[in-house]
Design goal:
Layout: H1 2-27, E1 41-42, E2 45-50, E3 58-63, E4 68-69, E5 73-84, E6 90-95, E7 101-107, E8 113-126
């Protein structure tokens, strides 16, 4: 009986040592992947506006999306177009109080149905950094206070 116990322990130890050796070999592998990831997002919004009878003037305004950069993300707007089924009588570009570009279209006698097509083209990208994670270097908002 004692021989079976010793044999069982020996096999167990042998399997255990084999597992450690296998794990040590797996941890020694090193893979390096080179290349980049890129994306281009083309988005199209089509909106039909039904103008009610009696409406004599119509004003529509659109905020133009802007490019921006944050500590971890980059977005570039490469193209932004707004097209109408009937050109407006007046089209203006201005800046609002928050610094956003705004396109305003005005019609004196709007058509019964107006088709609006908006198409931004965006190229998102990730910022690269050699800093360790977690991102302790990104400024955090102050803690919430209840008093």
């Amino acid at each position: 009986m004692r021989d079976k116990g010793r044999a069982g322990r020996g096999i167990f130890l042998l399997v255990l040592v084999g597992c450690f050796l296998q794990a040590a070999g797996a941890a020694a592998e090193n893979y390096e992947v080179r290349g980049g990831m890129g994306a281009r997002i083309r988005y199209r919004l089509v909106q039909d506006v039904d103008v009610q009878p009696g409406i004599q003037r119509l004003l529509m305004s659109f905020v133009v999306p802007g490019s921006f950069r944050s500590p971890t993300y980059l977005q570039r707007i490469e193209d932004f177009r707004i097209r109408f089924s009937r050109d407006p009588d007046r089209r203006e570009r201005s800046r609002d109080a928050r610094g956003n570009d705004v396109i305003t279209a005005r019609w004196r006698r709007p058509p019964r149905r107006l088709n609006v097509r908006i198409r931004p083209e965006t190229r998102p990208g990730w910022m690269s950094s050699n800093r360790p994670t977690p991102f302790l270097w990104i400024p955090c908002p102050p803690p919430f206070r209840t008093t």
